[in-house]
Amino acid sequence: MVERIEKLKEFLINNPDDDFVQHALALEFIKIGDDREARTLFEKILSRNTSYIGSYYHYAKLLERAGEKEKALEWYELGMQAAKKAGEQHSYKELQAAFEELSE
């Protein structure tokens, strides 16, 4: 996993604002338990590109694991809005299911 992280970091040297690479790197950080680094990357992505739908779910899940329920619910809602706007029904339903499960 460390090798993948290093390779993704190399890609970012040439294109530091690449949402796909940052998202992939954040997921790798989650796998090794480094939620702080993952959180930073998700926040960068979503502050720069509100239409990067996949990051909403993973960021909200991270917040949920950190015990930040209200903030996680907010991000699920923002993700649902973005998915609806983009016409991404599958992502919308996934975000909605996570939102409903957490809000019970």
In short:
The chain is mainly alpha-helical and 104 residues long. It has one domain: Tetratricopeptide repeat domain (Serine Threonine Protein Phosphatase 5, Tetratricopeptide repeat, Alpha Horseshoe), CATH 1.25.40.
Notable traits:
104 residues; mainly alpha; globular; Serine Threonine Protein Phosphatase 5, Tetratricopeptide repeat
What layout of secondary structure does this protein have?
Elements: H1 2-14, H2 19-31, H3 35-48, H4 53-65, H5 69-86, H6 89-103
Report on the structure:
Helix 3 (35-48) packs antiparallel against helix 4. The protein has a single domain (2-103), classed as Alpha Horseshoe (Serine Threonine Protein Phosphatase 5, Tetratricopeptide repeat), CATH 1.25.40. It starts with a helix and ends with a helix. It has six helices and no strands. The mean pLDDT is 96. The longest helix is centred in the C-terminal third of the chain and has 18 residues, at 69-86. The radius of gyration is 14 Å and the shape is globular. The chain has 104 residues and is mainly alpha-helical.
